[in-house]
Amino acid sequence: MNKVPTPKSFRVKSFGCQMNVYDGERMAELLATQGMEAAPEGEDADLVVLNTCHIREKAAEKVYSDIGRIVKDSDGKAPLIAVAGCVAQAEGDEIMRRARDVRMVVGPQAYHRLPDMIARASAGERVTDTDMPAEAKFGALPARRKRAPSAFLTVQEGCDKFCTYCVVPYTRGAEISRPFADLLDEAKRLVDQGAREITLLGQNVNAWDGEDGRGRAIGLDGLIRELAALPDLARIRYTTSHPNDMTDALIAAHGEVDKLMPYLHLPVQAGSDPILAAMNRSHSAESYLRVIERVRAARPDIAISGDFIVGFPGESEADFAATLALVDEVRYAAAFSFKYSPRPGTPAATMEGQVPVDVMDDRLQRLQAAITRDSHAFNAASVGRTCDVLVERTGRREGQWLGKTPWLQSAHFTASEGAADHAVGDIVRVELVEAGPNSLAARALT
Ligand code: SAH
Ligand code: SF4
Ligand code: F3S
Predict the structure, then answer these.
(1) Which of 9, 66, 235, 278 could make an SS bond with 39 (beta carbons 3.0 to 4.6 A apart)?
(2) Cβ atoms of residues 185 and 218 within 8 Å
(3) Cα separation of 10 and 34, whole Å?
(4) Which residue has its alpha carbon closest to ligand 2 atom 5?
(5) Considering only CA atoms, which of 232, 254, 188 is closest in space to residue 426?
């Protein structure tokens, strides 16, 4: 390919899960340390990094349409394009074949080598780096952050569970836990830079383990307790968890650590045991429900959320009815549901009994109606409660502030007449006064 000047400006676009968002932020910081500047919104960048997601077919196909659009809109001055993330890992060679304008393919474990790749790509090479070295990339990435009241911190990466529908074990590799000392350091820095809330991230975050400062083995509950001791950190969350890794100690932490917010994202995927077995989930509907029961006993007001897949191969109407029955029993505060998407190389993609798309559409609609019903009920039941809101930004109306309740609901309020005004990052005591479809109206009490 032709040589191009070393890029001066960049844009990182992240898709998919929060861990990709975290990685995208880290890449942006790395590029900034190389003397490049983030291109302002709406302006062309010399380098575009597409940080992609492979979880469902639609997400993966988006990469190719994005590349096409970037090239088409560039008036002949196409930027250097790097494809990063899980599509890069899963189909790096295919991207290089299908998309001739892509100069770099960089897998999720190779981000720290981006500067070198950019130098080679500017010199005219097309470079692929999808190695999955055992040592983690994290140490090599800078942890300087933009100020924000709520920050992500990846503590665990990869997955050993091999659910039969899922690409993550292939794109992110085996489970690794980042060392405790590194996490404590990064958390302290985040707090120094203004974070009041930290969300601990991992594909199986509750499988995190490590050694505390005194060499004792600890699990996620121990990490949460250590972080809760940071004076200026007000809130801790974690996501995503696997039902089988919800230990007694982690459940107990929900009842004992005030800074651990009353919210648990615990995907179940389906309510029928034969389907759960075919998915290789290694839990049953009943064992999942028992976990929820124990969590609620520890923290009665906890908001539960989950993930569902409808139309997994072999799912009958009776299997789907079991999913609806499970939803009725859990009463989710929020949940995400998806149509099954066959992923190349996963065992489920070649299973018999693939479900027709119109059946999936119908089931998805019924499932989402049930979830919406419960989520509205959860919000309606919050009206009248007094709670803290972490202020994240100003609202559209004069004097209006937006933030999150402990149960991760969006809430908006207006500073009361004569009271002190607020700022982003403040934790404001409010009364929740009205539940709308997407957020709650609140009244500031301070
Ligand atoms: N580690 C998490 C979730 C990772 S992926 C867990 O164990 O649940 C996020 C969600 O995407 C999954 O919970 C699942 O609901 C959905 N998903 C994953 N693979 C999918 C596929 N092939 N088709 C449709 N949805 C899928
Ligand atoms: Fe995918 Fe299952 Fe691992 Fe979650 S636990 S990332 S769904 S393989
Ligand atoms: Fe997508 Fe990869 Fe996350 S496939 S959901 S970006 S781990």
Answers:
(1) 9
(2) no
(3) 11
(4) 161
(5) 232
Q: Which long-range contacts link 412-415 to residues 24+ away (Cβ below 8 Å)?
A: 412/439, 412/440, 412/441, 412/442, 413/389, 413/441, 413/442, 413/443, 413/444, 414/444, 415/444
215: left (phi over 0), alpha (psi -120 to 50) or beta: left
Alpha helices in 193-316 (DSSP H): 220-228, 248-256, 273-278, 285-298
51-62 burial, b at 16+ Cβ within 10 Å, e below that, comes to: bbbbbbeebbeb
**CB count in 10 Å sphere of residue 201:** 23
Alpha-carbon dihedral sign for residues 201, 307, 253, 191 = positive
Regarding the beta carbon of 337 and ligand 3, being less than 6 Å apart is answered no
Confirm or reject: Cβ of 54 under 6 Å from ligand 3. Answer: yes
CB of 56 within 6 A of ligand 1: the answer is yes
pTM for the model stands at: 0.95
Q: Delineate the domains of the chain, giving CATH numbers in brackets.
A: 9-135 (3.40.50.12160), 143-261 (3.30.750.210), 272-283+293-382 (3.30.750.200), 386-444 (2.40.50)
Reported as half-sphere exposure (CB side, CA atoms, 13 A), residue 404 has a value of: 16
For 78-96, write each residue's pLDDT tens digit.
899 999 999 999 999 999 9
Q: Which of 403, 407, 388, 430 is nearest to 300 (CA)?
A: 407
pLDDT in tens, 106-150: 999 999 899 999 999 999 999 999 988 756 677 767 666 667 899
Nearest to 237 by CA among 308, 155, 330: 155
Take atom 7 of ligand 1 and give the residue whose Cα is closest: 242
Q: How many residues does the chain have?
A: 446
Question: Given the CA of residue 203, which atom of ligand 1 is nearest to it?
Answer: 1
Count of Cβ atoms closer than 10 Å to residue 233 Cβ: 19
